[in-house]
Design goal:
The complex is a heterodimer of chains A (118) and B (229). By secondary structure, chain A is mostly beta strands. In chain A, 12% of the residues lie in helices and 53% in strands. Chain A has a domain at 20-54. In chain A, the strands form 2 sheets. A 6-stranded antiparallel β-sheet of chain A has the order 1-7-8-9-2-3, covered by helices on one side. A 3-stranded antiparallel β-sheet of chain A has the order 4-5-6. Chain A starts with a strand and ends in a 6-residue tail after the last strand. Chain B has helices spanning 18-32, 62-77, 96-110, 126-141, 159-163, 176-185, 187-200, 206-214; strands at residues 9-13, 37-41, 80-83, 114-118, 149-153, 168-171, 216-222. In chain B, helix 1 packs antiparallel against helix 6 (176-185) and helix 2 runs antiparallel to helix 6. Classes of the chains: A mainly beta (118), B alpha/beta (229). The interface between A and B is medium-sized, with 30 and 23 residues. Chain B: Its cofactor is Zn(2+).
């Protein structure tokens, strides 16, 4: 079960995964129905499932109740904004996500020592 | 409507819950008439953003949760289930002819006399449109005298303007229990929506609020040789 981000705990997990090959899931979405329900809205979304990389440093930063995470890897960066909740699951995967007031996922950054399923 | 006229109804939609929101009452009527119904469900809705309200799923647990919800909904509706194993949000990137060939084999093997699917171009979600297009294509590939009837679900904001009103409308006043139970089987997806419906309704009763919104299921019966998509 995901719970509200605790900065020190998440930072510890991020540190644990540094300097070793990891698999990253990164996504953001405002839903497939955004412009269906609101003519002024515009559907945007992107996801990467299982980017394999090694990051040398990672940091979580709090901003007015939500969080940003940046991971510096060999040839670039991974970045996510609007994160609110986290879970470290039984597969040793760090799941971090941002949910809206209705509990819908808006953004996710996940790190795993093995490829994510599917 | 003579529901018992059909031999086998095949529902082709991409996501767990499409069948419940789109066709649960119609499926119930076919089952009550003794007609077998099979759901070809494209994906497990792996990329859904509803995680329950309040949320209890996450991106990694959602597929298995939705699989169970789908199986429960199919039990409520007493229909057969085939999970096709595509991935949510990727259906439009799969080769359409390969999908159509696969669907055609199902339709022939099951002896389908009616296909219920999405109307390509009028079904809002890219998976809906792509799944419907492959289903249309599958029917087109069959011998004209073997082809099942096609009923297509459309709900884009312009669907009435462009297509007119649905020419098949099923009133669920006498089979709404199953429709609501099937929707509620999809707890991770439906809970938030149902409580919003209730909040926006003049009724303080969930059944009444849902009935206002979902009483009728509309479809376009299409001539597969004439339809543009």
């Amino acid at each position: 079960m995901m719970e509200a981000i605790k900065l020190e705990i998440v930072q510890d997990y991020i540190n644990q995964f540094a300097n070793q090959p990891v698999y990253v899931h990164l996504e953001t979405t405002n839903g497939a129905y955004a412009s269906h329900f609101n003519a002024n809205a515009y559907n945007v979304g992107a996801y990467i499932r299982n980017a394999r990389l090694t990051y040398s440093q990672g940091k979580i930063v709090e901003h007015e109740g939500s969080y940003r995470v940046g991971l510096k890897h060999e040839i670039g960066w991974i970045y996510a904004e609007g994160l609110t909740d986290f879970e470290f699951n039984e597969n040793n995967q760090l799941l971090i996500a941002g949910h809206d007031k209705e509990g819908r996922l808006m953004v996710a950054l996940q790190i795993s020592p093995e490829p994510f399923s599917y | 409507m003579n529901f018992e006229e059909h031999n086998h109804v095949v529902v082709i939609y991409p996501h767990p819950d499409d069948e419940s929101f789109g066709a649960a009452g119609t499926i119930t009527k076919f089952r009550k008439a003794g007609v077998p119904v099979t759901y070809l469900c494209g994906t497990l809705g792996e990329m859904g953003r509803n995680m329950g309200s309040p949320f209890f799923a996450n991106r990694e647990t959602l597929p298995q949760i939705r699989k169970k919800e789908l199986q429960d909904a199919c039990k409520v509706l007493d229909m057969n289930l085939e999970m096709l194993g595509y991935r949510d949000k990727t259906i439009e990137f799969e080769p359409r002819d390969e999908m159509a060939e696969r669907f055609k084999n199902y339709l022939e093997n099951l002896g389908a006399t009616l296909v219920i699917t999405f109307y390509p171009g009028f079904a809002v979600h890219p998976d809906h449109n792509a799944m419907g297009a492959a289903a249309f294509e599958a029917v087109k590939m069959m011998d004209p005298d073997q082809r099942p009837t096609v009923w297509a679900t459309a709900f884009s904001n312009d669907h009435v303007e462009k297509l007119g009103k649905p020419n098949v409308v099923i009133d669920l006043i006498d089979s709404f229990d199953q429709k609501l139970d099937a929707i509620k089987a999809h707890r991770s997806q439906a809970e938030g929506m149902l409580s919003q419906l209730l909040a926006n309704s003049e009724s303080d009763n969930e059944y009444e609020a849902a009935l206002e919104r979902f009483r009728f299921e509309g479809f376009y019966e299409v001539d597969i040789d004439q339809v543009n998509y």
